[in-house]
Amino acid sequence: MNVIETKIPELLIFEPRVFGDERGWFMESFNEKTFAAALSERGFDVPHFVQDNHSFSAKGVLRGLHYQLNPHAQGKLVRVVSGRAWDVAVDIRKDSPTFGQWVGVELSADNHRQFWIPAGFAHGFIALEDGTQFLYKTTNFYHKDSERSIAWNDADLAIDWQFAGEPLLTDKDKLAPTLHEAKALGDVF
């Protein structure tokens, strides 16, 4: 498995080896030893996954930027198994040197990439094709009262969503505060 580092050291992209022939292809989508080695080699904690989630989205659906507060914070290992998505993680750790910075990566059924997003980051994605299916493993269970959002279009973050036009959003995501508003509320790490 190839591990790609990003401008924020804790955010890693995993590219599995894909073995293909005239019948199709095979890949190992997750290997705990390989994943743990990649994190521990870089001095990061190795998580334990407790829940898998799966979403189906039409082109233009934007989900995010979501996170959960401690003690229910979640790390996520995300991938796309059908379609394409632009996936974004934002550092919301107030004492981090990269606070407010973001990393984006295209995830698709064709590139098989996975994106590791540890707790302390807000996460969101936009479906770039109809029928985009997004899978992710989480390090903590969903906890409604700990759920928070940051505005996808926060001008200070200036995220390039790689999408022309208005995204399709839930009412909750339309009303999400900016990162600085969330920080003022004490809703960051």
Work out the count of structural domains. Answer: 1
Oligomer state of the chains in this structure: single chain
Q: What proportion of the residues form beta strands (DSSP E)? A: 35-45%
- Enumerate the spans where pLDDT stays under 50 for 5 or more consecutive residues: none
Largest sheet: 6 strands, antiparallel
In total, the number of strands is 13
Computed over alpha carbons, the radius of gyration is 16 Å
What is the CATH T-level topology?
Jelly Rolls
- Report the order of strands and helices: EEEEHEEEEEEEEEHH
Mean pLDDT: 97
Strand order of the largest sheet: 1-2-10-7-12-5
CATH superfamily: Jelly Rolls
> According to CATH, what is the class?
Mainly Beta
What is the helix tally? 3
Summarize the entry for a quick read.
This protein has 189 residues and is mainly β. It has helices spanning 32-41, 171-174, 179-184; strands at residues 2-5, 12-15, 18-21, 24-27, 51-57, 62-68, 76-82, 84-91, 102-108, 114-117, 121-127, 132-138, 147-149.
Molecular structure report:
By secondary structure, the protein is mostly beta strands. The chain has one domain (49-184): Jelly Rolls (Sandwich). The chain has three helices and 13 strands; from the N terminus they run ββββαβββββββββαα. The protein has a six-stranded antiparallel β-sheet with strand order 1-2-10-7-12-5, with no helix packed on it. The chain has a five-stranded antiparallel β-sheet with strand order 9-8-11-6-13, with no helix packed on it. The mean pLDDT is 97. The active site is at residues 66, 136. Pathway: Carbohydrate biosynthesis; dTDP-L-rhamnose biosynthesis. Its EC number is 5.1.3.13. It is an enzyme of class 5 (isomerase). Homodimer.
